[in-house]
Amino acid sequence: MTAISEAVILMAGEGSRLRGFDKTLLKPFVPVLGRPLICYTIDALIRAGIKKANFIVGYQSGRLIAAVKQLIPAELEPCFIENPNWQKQNGISLLAAANELTSPFLLAMSDHLFDQSIVGLLLRNAVLDQLNLALDRKLDSIFDVDDAMKVQTQGDRILKIGKDLTVYDGIDTGLFVCPLDIFDYLERVKRDGDCSLADGVRLMASEDKARAVDIGDAWWQDVDTPEMLTCAQTQLRSRLARHDILTATARPDRGNRAENQARTGNNHPKMKDPLGQAE
Length: 279
Fold this sequence. Notes:
nine-stranded mixed beta sheet; two-stranded antiparallel ribbon
């Protein structure tokens, strides 16, 4: 497996489409089968052997950091990086980590669920001097294809990426292995101080620096709206029953405790690492 030990998790946005009018609930703590959404990503990182996780925060960052800290086990080193321009696109959030990384890294979205097998497949097949995107070619299985980030490929080479593509053969799952020069590409595509991750991938693809790793039959789901959440919970419940998802040994109590703190701002001084506590 590729020796990737560090990850970046983008979680700076407001998440208003999923939270609706509930301003007290932070998107990474929206419950999915009784556990905060972010718990699934943390589990995936640990199982993949990631040693350090850089969480990019912005919206209500103080509350978010305090709550996420309750979920981090001793074997995962957390680093919280503030994006003061969190209202801008996700490329700006990734750029906030530019001075923290010294080697290729795993990039994940905090609002995606995915089979653990996708992470392993991506790490095993990554080419470290290129951008590697985990790609879903099962187009008929995409819940909301209109909202999906579409990708056109030739073999494993990425040709085009964008939500408005009319010719495409895969969907961006939101999981990447990135080389350090992705930051240079994001700087190059900035317009009026803003850019998206897709803008950077598009430029890298134009210079033959972006490739796709097919996830095969594995499952993933973006959780951006209440409808996506409902779909994700249905799929996840079925997969958990078959012990086929990364959270088969989940501990719901640890996430619920942190979620309550995220709502109330109550950080009890005697609270230890909930992830290490027994049921």
